[in-house]
Design goal:
Blueprint lengths: L1 H20 L18 E5 L7 E8 L6 E8 L4 E4 L10 E6 L4 E2 L3 E3 L5 E2 L4 E2 L4 E2 L15 E8 L2 E2 L1 E6 L1 E2 L7
Parallel strand pairs: 1-12, 10-14
Antiparallel strand pairs: 1-4, 2-3, 4-8, 5-7, 5-11, 6-9, 11-13
Length: about 170
């Protein structure tokens, strides 16, 4: 019998709390607005003339050995913006590659203009330009390589290059 009294009391208290929460608040204290979104949009700032692949020599971390590599020129740059269009100053963006390669940095913080960059981008093995004519040995390379810029919250962006060397120069 005691459990019936307690059960009914609990139901009555729950119903009273529910009805109180449904009270009209149009004349009372205004509700606090939700916080502004921290989600950002990242987009590539594509160079006017596109990317090219350059052959260069860099020093390895041991400081002694030089090695020849292929780098993307110019360095990729991304723009970070809030949904209202304001620059995403202070937003952290991480960088990843779709194929083996190297980036000068894997993380950057957006500056006052909302710009971030992974710095120098060393690409994986590039495709010969022009491709060898058959019956030459088949060339196994991936001409399209990408760097992905991902913010902590929001939409990512991708910069893509056609990794052929020497670069294809468009006719004027």
């Amino acid at each position: 019998m005691l459990h019936r009294i307690v059960s009914r009391s609990v139901v009555v208290l729950a119903a009273t709390a529910f009805l109180a929460s449904c009270e009209d608040n149009t004349t009372g204290t205004p509700l606090t607005p939700p916080p502004a979104s921290t989600a950002v949009y990242v987009s590539e700032v594509a160079p006017a003339d596109g990317y090219t692949i350059e052959q260069t020599t860099i020093k390895l971390p041991d400081g002694i050995t030089d090695t020849t590599v292929f780098v993307v020129s110019p360095d990729p740059v991304f723009e970070v913006k809030y949904p209202d269009g304001a620059a995403g100053e202070g937003q952290v963006v991480t960088f990843n590659l779709n194929l083996p390669g190297l980036l000068a940095q894997t993380k950057d913080t957006a500056d006052a203009a909302g710009l971030v960059s992974p710095g120098q981008w060393v690409v994986a093995s590039v495709c010969p330009n022009p491709a060898p004519e058959p019956p030459a040995e088949p060339v196994f390379c991936r001409p399209t390589q990408s760097v992905i810029a991902t913010p902590i919250t929001g939409n990512a962006a991708v910069a893509t290059v056609d990794a052929v060397f020497p670069p294809i120069v468009p006719e004027p």
